[in-house]
Amino acid sequence: MTRALDPERLARAYVSTVTQGPSRAVEQLIASRGVIDAAATMRTGDVPKAVWDRISARAHLDSAAQSLDMVAALDGRLVIPSDEEWPAWRFLGFDRQDGAPDKRDAGAPFALWVVGSASIAASSERAVAVVGTRAATSYGEHVTAEIAGDLAVDGWTVVSGGAYGIDGAAHRAALGVGGCTVAVLACGVDRAYPAGHERLLRRVSESGAVISEYPPGTHPARYRFLARNRVVAALSDGVVVVEAGWRSGARNTASWARSLGRPVMAVPGPVTSASSTGCHRMIREGEARLVTGARDIAAEVGVIGTGAGDDDAQDALFGRDLDRLPATPARVLDAFPASGARSVQELSVDSGVTVSAVRSALVVLEIEGHAGRDESGWFRIGGL
Amino acid sequence: MTRALDPERLARAYVSTVTQGPSRAVEQLIASRGVIDAAATMRTGDVPKAVWDRISARAHLDSAAQSLDMVAALDGRLVIPSDEEWPAWRFLGFDRQDGAPDKRDAGAPFALWVVGSASIAASSERAVAVVGTRAATSYGEHVTAEIAGDLAVDGWTVVSGGAYGIDGAAHRAALGVGGCTVAVLACGVDRAYPAGHERLLRRVSESGAVISEYPPGTHPARYRFLARNRVVAALSDGVVVVEAGWRSGARNTASWARSLGRPVMAVPGPVTSASSTGCHRMIREGEARLVTGARDIAAEVGVIGTGAGDDDAQDALFGRDLDRLPATPARVLDAFPASGARSVQELSVDSGVTVSAVRSALVVLEIEGHAGRDESGWFRIGGL
Predict the structure, then answer these.
(1) Which of A66, A371, B175, B233 is an S-S bond match for A365, by CB 3.0 to 4.6 Å?
(2) Neighboring chain A residues of B141 at a CB cutoff of 8 Å
(3) What is the CATH T-level fold of the domain A308-380, as seen in this structure?
(4) ipTM of the complex
């Protein structure tokens, strides 16, 4: 396979394989040396102690080429930051991770192992995570089916974790209406986990994507579930928890979303149901906004029907003559006042572009010198 | 009956009968002339136009003595502000009614017609309103029974509106555990409304109280339900809505509680149930705090187990030597810092005394010259 020979891809595969999850130390090494050089020094052990402590057990096992072969055999691929389908803006939030200590070591994934027909960037352009307990009630599964089905019909990608219960119901509902759904796994994409979802995950990969930051062959483990939850949150415009017990992985996903500045939502249920206690607690503590259906959710995560999926329509509307900018950045630029700063949220409301698409557009506008940022927010550079 | 001959009581009965509900104009007339003189001028029509517009249709019908006879025949009474059982502090919130235009004309009741064994002041000392839709589901009635029963066992009076559905379930649950419950009616206390609750209301009056600001013989009417809701809110430390449709009288009660500064709470339910849509909306819009049971409710309305009902224990603990103050005001005074202002809520937390009891205590402390109020809150006068 041609792509496997690409030295950058090979280096990313190596880093992914030996690091096994996020690491700020490895991230810094790559930032200072480039990934190819970083991978070479990681192999030799000539790296800062923090990096070595993390990788020493696996540094000698150079299974990168083998992992790439394995994913290719599944008709899959390794997606890396230089690929067009890398959803760079989805991971910008990790740059500002200075809050919760439990999240400080968790940056963007080094690469994503993917089996699926969908482009990761395109499928996560307008995406909502629908997650919850494995111990779902029939009420929870029913409500998940309604919500995920309605979101998928409205063009939202439904992101979830592939687990039994709420996750499975969310994937199934999106598939059922011919929508796009993405499963983020805590093990290699070659593993069907849980085993009973082997067929469901195959269907997810056929119309959407099955994703992992862990190389093929990796077994699920508790700490991998926690790291996986951050990818679910990162790939989504918001996280909806449908049912969750008092202690639930779904609350961990919600916590990631919160620290990434994404809306967290929870669906209430009967107060007599143990499977809703986590949702009620999150709403009560102000950790999540109460939502009752897809309409509430769309109102939280963006402006209904004007997501970045409408690029063609936006092109027709705005043309590409304004400084040769793509339509969405041009539209966001148009939402700036002549002077004064705006928040991402305000720009989203004023432009009718989703928050995640505004973030993406601001990267373009900043690079092109049309916009800048200071402590009061984003401001326009140059006249109207 | 001796009390009926009391000229102040007779005057209040007249005002109540001819005004039929709250009126700021009548309130001002009473404040400037005293109630006996005010009633005399109302009879002759020699009153400001705003008063006359309100009472002209009924001013000549002096049925006050007859109303007092009717309530006496029911073993009831008219409770007026000079009575010991008048819960003055409950109505203080109306003095600061400057917000919502729909509430500006609504002050304290001029008097309360009562049938019941309980003192109004004592029974509303620690009280929670539990209200909701007439179209309750079995889920709603079950949850109401749990909540109202638990509150009553913990010594809270359960206040409600005597209606079918949630209201009835709340009264019944309090009675079922031998607790105290108060029904506030939108008609005369001689009327059983709804008719199917005749027996329930009699049981409520036997162990608690059935109350109305309308004289005996008054029929229920839509505007009387709205005014009645304000009395439900005023007599309670907080309002819990168990089930409510999209448009519901319970939301009106909640709105009164909010403008009186009392906590508003709502119980969630299945998002598939139309009877919970009002609750979900209130929680979603930030109008109500989500609660799942009596424990959550107690946490919202006051400190558990240290309500003003514990006066004896507090007396033993604090003595009455501090400036000869009653125990609760002394305890609240003790919660003040040497300098700086505190809110009622902060004083409640610091003293372990419920918010309503703090309000009551502050009236005493202000009269006795121990505390004052400015725009930043309440402050102590004199040293520690």
Answers:
(1) A371
(2) none
(3) Arc Repressor Mutant, subunit A (1.10.10)
(4) 0.75
